Amino acid sequence: MLEHRLFSRANRPQDLFFESAPAGNRRFRANIGTQFVNVLWRSWITVVRDPASLKFRGIQTFTIGLLLGLIYLNQSINQEGVMNINGLLFILVTNTSFSSQFMVVNVFPLEMGVILRDFNSKLYSVEIYYFCKTLADLPLQILFPVLLNAIVYWMVG
């Protein structure tokens, strides 16, 4: 009964995914909006269902923040302290940039088979997939650097 209510004729997943575009000249089975919503939802579910990665990134962020905070603990505002803080800012920017890049670089080879299969089946475009995958990862790409900077900020002074 519940399954019947969830997947009635009006809202079955396959009907939503294969929303109509003009049959004569369509490149993909679904329009751009439908592709976007479905791929974004799938990408978000993939991010949420990987608790090991979330725990690892959380522990990594806390450890690096604590380590950098202890190295640069209570810097004074003189010439040496300002140069130390500049070095710390460089380390933080480099760490944030490389961690974001490696996360993106490692994801696409792992999902290449699924991407190619779905693209060849005309389910969605590669551009939509890339945009949605980046958008689904964006909250974590913001959260972990903010936590890292908050830890370091309060320790350095």
TrEMBL record:
UniProt entry tagged with the keyword Transport: yes
Major location category of this protein: membrane
Record's GO cellular component terms: plasma membrane
Pfam families: ABC2_membrane
Bilayer topology: Multi-pass membrane protein
GO terms assigned for molecular function: ABC-type transporter activity
Database matches in InterPro entries: ABC2_TM (IPR013525), ABCG_transporters (IPR050352)
Keyword Transferase recorded: no
Source superkingdom: Eukaryota
Transmembrane segments: 54-73, 85-108, 128-156
Domain (ABC-2 type transporter transmembrane) ranges: 34-157
Designated name of the protein: ABC-2 type transporter transmembrane domain-containing protein
Organism (species): Octopus bimaculoides
